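re: ur question from earlier - yeah i can do the single chain one, its not a big deal. heres the input i used so u can compare w yours
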Amino acid sequence: MRAKAAGGRDEGLARGVVLVVEQLRRTVPGGIGTYTRALVAGIASLAEADRPRCRLYASRPRGTADPLTDLGFPVETSPWPAAALVAAWGVGLGRVGGGAAIVHATSTAFPPAAAPLTVAIHDLAWRQVPEAYPAHGRRWHERALRRAARRAACVIVPSEATARQLRDAGLGVDDERIAVVEEGSDHLGPPDAAATRGVLARLGVEGEYLLAVGTREPRKNLTRLLAAYTAARQRHELAMPLVVVGPPGWGDATTRPAGVVFSGPVADPVLAGLYATARLVVYVPLVEGFGLPVVEAMRAGTPVVASAVPSSAGAAHEVDPYDVDGIAAGLVAVATEEDLRTRLVAAGFARVAPLTWRAAAEGHLAVWRRLAGAAR
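and the output i got, formated as tokens:
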């Protein structure tokens, strides 16, 4: 089932929606954190007649100030810290959503719900590439998936690929309980050109550069990417530096080949500036439920080299993420062939045109209206 926005206010949502945003308490919120924050902004952008009354729910903040209050909706917090709260949810404690019409969990870390529950499942990557996850991580994800399959009135996924994997998982989640709602691409806002130049100067990057974005962890495939870049550089086919943006994860490549610069995480206006001024963006994960860096780059008008992630939809120069020589050839082609670059930029703009977080919010809202109406 593909969710589509429903017209007019549904009185079934009058009691409001609780958004479980625990992912934003993590030190590295990652792509799920981007989805969570952007979805909240997308809901806030809806016309008042269509916008449900929402409140955010999460563990207690680490300090006295709570950054969640900046998101524009009332915030309700548990007295428990993050680790204890998520553990309690796993054993059925900490019920949330009393008096609400819907509880929506933005990840598979979700509470027992006192209202119809929707859960966002972004991918099943630990099943597809188990070697890219530690054993304890695989166990946690598998328990969380099975719990979501039992408890969720509907599972919201970002792509048909994830929907297919969920149907095939053997957990009894059929089409009636799956809604595909693609993610947006317009969350970064305008670039800060001066701050971007400052970051590049600090990194010692002058002139044109290639850009890779993502948390450094095994499934993001950084080791093969660096090998491909190094091969192209050693063959004198590619002289531009490669800037790698993103927080360190676990088990990531620690070598720093010649020409590769690690920036760590950067602020959104700088990330937008890096996308806008890069010669190309490369994103070659082993598996992905959607792939936000691809559409972030396309919205900036930058050509992309990528593995066949759902967000690309054929608008990137696609390569096999296991083929180091193929990745190297893709980098060289997109960096140097102007006709190819022009085609990719045009295809990228066409791809991202409908991918807004307002549209994503409307897709979620359609699911919530249907469930709230059925529960009346």
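The first strand starts at residue 17 and ends at 20. not sure if urs matches, ping me
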